[in-house]
C-alpha cells in the first residue's frame, strides 16, 4: 500500500484528528488559520479550537488578486501564476503559524484548504441556460501538502457543483453537525463580503442561502472614497449620512432578491458597477458620500432581515448565532436586532467557536467528514443540496 494512503487510512480510524482549517474570503484581509481538534464524525462531531489567527496579506499580494477576482476579462497568465503563488503563500503561512505556536507538523493530521475564490458563476448569474453552475478557487493544495509535509484536502466546492449544487454556500454541512439543537430553531448568520445564513429547524430540512451583500459594497465604497481605509470601521462614515430611499429601492429591485431560497451570489453581481447603475437610475448622481454609505448599510441590513423573517417562527423559540466581520458594524447590527426582536442574536463564541474563526473551522469539519464520515448524515436533513462529502486529497509526496 502507498505510504500516504496507509497514513490516511490510519488518520481516518483515529478517535480524534488535529486539522488546520484555512479560509480566505472576499475581503482579502488575510488567511484565517484555525487549528482544530475534531473528535468523531457525523452527528457525533465535536470540535475544540486550539489555536486561531488571521495572518494578514501584504498589499502587493492583495493587489495581484484584485486584478483577477470576479472579473470576466483577465490576463490568463496572471490567473495561472496566482494559482501556484497562493498555494505557496498559504503553505508558508501555515509553517509560520506552526512555528509561532511551537507545534511540530507531525502533530497535524490534515490541512483543509478552501483556497481563494476568484469567480463564482451559478447559472442564474451567467444566464446561459445550457451551461452548468460553476465556481473557481485558486491556491493549489499540492503546493500546500508538499511545502508543509501534511496531507491537504482542498477544492471543496467542485464536488458540490458536480453533484448538482451551486458550489456555495457550504456552511450548512458543517453547521448541521456543530450547531443543531433540540427544542428550538437555530439560525447561523454570517456577514462577510456576502451575507448568508444556515437554517437548522427543529423539524424539517436544513439549508444555507446567501441573502445578498454583506460588507462588500460598503468596503468598496470606502476604498473608493477614503484613501488608506479598507472598511467603514464602527460605521463612522454611515452614521454621518442619511438613508436615501430612492437609491435603497433601486438597490433592492434586482431580480436576485425575488429568487427562491436557497440561492447564491457573489462579487460578480454586487460590485461597484451594480452600485453606480443604481445611483444613475435615481436620476441623482450627486448623492453625498456619507448618504451612499448609510444607504448601503441599510441595504445589507434590510435584505438580511427580509430573508430571515421568511423562516422565523416565534413558536419554535428561535435563536440566531452570528459570525463574520459585519457583526462588528454597530449601525448594521442595531437595525437587524431591532427588526428581528424578540429573537435573540448571540455570538458563536457561546458555542465555543470564535466568530472570526467559524468559516475556517467549518472547512476543517468538512475535511474530517471527507476522511472519516459518510454522506448519509446530510441526505437526511439537507434541502435542495447534494448529500456528498467534498474535497480533493493532496499527498505530500
Helix-strand sequence: HEEEHHEHEHEHHEEEHHHHHEHEHHE
Count of DSSP helices?
A: 15
- Going by CATH, the architecture of the largest domain would be 2-Layer Sandwich
Compute the separation of the termini in Å.
14 Å
Instruction: Note the main sheet.
Output: 7 strands, mixed
Overall CATH class of the largest domain? Alpha Beta
CATH superfamily of the largest domain: ATPase, nucleotide binding domain
Q: Residue-averaged pLDDT, rounded?
A: 95
The CATH topology of the largest domain is given as Nucleotidyltransferase, domain 5
Structural class: alpha/beta
Radius of gyration: 21 Å
The total tally of domains equals: 2
Uncertain stretches of 5 or more adjacent residues: none
Helix content: 25-40%
Q: Give the number of DSSP strands.
A: 12
Q: What general outline do the C-alpha atoms trace?
A: globular
List the helices and strands and how they pair.
Layout: H1 3-13, E1 16-24, E2 30-39, E3 46-56, H2 59-66, H3 76-101, E4 110-121, H4 123-126, E5 134-138, H5 141-148, E6 152-154, H6 157-162, H7 171-179, E7 186-191, E8 194-200, E9 207-213, H8 216-225, H9 236-239, H10 245-252, H11 272-282, H12 289-309, E10 319-323, H13 330-340, E11 344-347, H14 358-372, H15 376-379, E12 392-394
Parallel strand pairs: 1-4, 4-6, 7-10, 10-11
Antiparallel strand pairs: 1-2, 2-3, 4-5, 6-12, 7-8, 8-9
Helix pairs in contact: 3-5, 7-14, 8-12, 10-11, 10-12, 12-13
Amino acid at each position: 500500500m502507498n505510504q500516504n494512503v496507509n497514513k490516511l487510512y490510519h488518520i481516518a480510524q483515529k478517535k480524534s484528528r488535529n486539522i488546520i482549517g484555512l479560509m480566505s474570503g472576499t475581503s482579502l484581509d488575510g488567511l484565517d488559520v484555525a487549528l482544530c481538534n475534531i473528535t468523531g464524525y457525523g452527528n457525533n462531531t465535536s470540535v475544540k479550537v486550539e489555536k486561531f489567527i488571521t495572518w494578514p496579506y501584504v498589499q502587493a499580494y492583495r493587489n495581484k488578486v484584485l486584478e483577477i477576482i470576479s472579473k470576466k476579462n483577465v490576463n490568463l497568465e496572471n490567473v495561472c501564476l496566482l494559482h501556484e503563488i497562493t498555494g505557496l503563500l498559504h503553505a508558508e503561512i501555515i509553517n509560520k503559524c506552526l512555528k509561532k505556536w511551537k507545534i511540530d507538523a507531525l502533530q497535524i493530521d490534515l490541512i483543509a484548504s478552501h483556497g481563494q475564490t476568484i469567480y463564482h458563476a451559478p447559472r442564474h448569474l451567467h444566464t446561459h441556460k445550457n451551461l452548468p453552475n460553476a465556481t473557481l478557487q485558486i491556491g493549489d493544495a499540492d503546493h500546500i501538502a508538499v511545502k508543509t509535509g501534511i496531507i491537504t484536502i482542498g477544492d471543496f466546492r467542485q464536488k458540490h457543483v458536480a453533484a448538482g449544487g451551486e458550489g456555495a454556500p457550504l456552511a450548512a454541512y458543517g453547521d448541521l453537525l456543530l450547531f443543531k439543537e433540540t427544542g428550538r430553531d437555530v439560525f447561523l448568520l454570517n456577514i462577510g463580503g456576502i451575507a448568508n445564513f444556515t437554517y437548522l429547524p427543529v423539524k424539517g430540512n436544513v439549508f444555507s442561502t446567501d441573502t445578498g451583500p454583506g460588507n462588500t459594497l460598503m468596503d468598496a465604497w470606502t476604498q473608493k472614497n477614503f484613501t488608506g481605509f479598507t472598511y467603514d470601521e464602527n460605521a463612522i462614515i454611515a452614521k454621518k449620512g442619511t438613508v436615501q430611499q430612492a437609491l435603497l429601492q433601486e438597490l433592492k429591485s434586482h431580480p436576485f432578491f425575488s429568487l427562491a431560497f436557497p440561492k447564491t451570489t457573489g462579487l460578480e453581481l454586487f460590485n461597484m458597477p451594480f452600485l453606480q447603475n443604481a445611483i444613475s437610475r435615481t436620476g441623482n448622481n450627486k448623492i453625498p458620500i456619507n448618504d451612499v454609505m448609510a444607504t448601503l448599510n441599510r441595504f445589507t441590513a434590510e435584505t438580511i432581515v427580509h430573508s430571515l423573517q421568511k423562516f422565523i417562527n416565534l413558536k419554535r423559540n428561535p435563536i440566531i448565532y452570528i459570525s463574520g466581520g459585519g457583526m462588528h458594524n454597530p449601525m448594521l447590527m442595531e437595525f437587524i436586532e431591532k427588526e428581528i426582536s424578540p429573537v435573540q442574536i448571540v455570538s458563536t463564541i457561546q458555542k465555543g467557536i470564535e466568530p472570526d474563526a467559524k468559516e475556517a473551522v467549518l472547512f476543517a469539519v468538512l475535511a474530517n467528514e471527507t476522511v472519516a464520515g459518510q454522506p448519509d448524515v446530510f441526505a437526511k436533513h439537507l434541502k435542495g443540496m447534494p448529500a456528498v462529502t467534498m474535497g480533493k486529497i493532496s499527498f505530500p509526496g
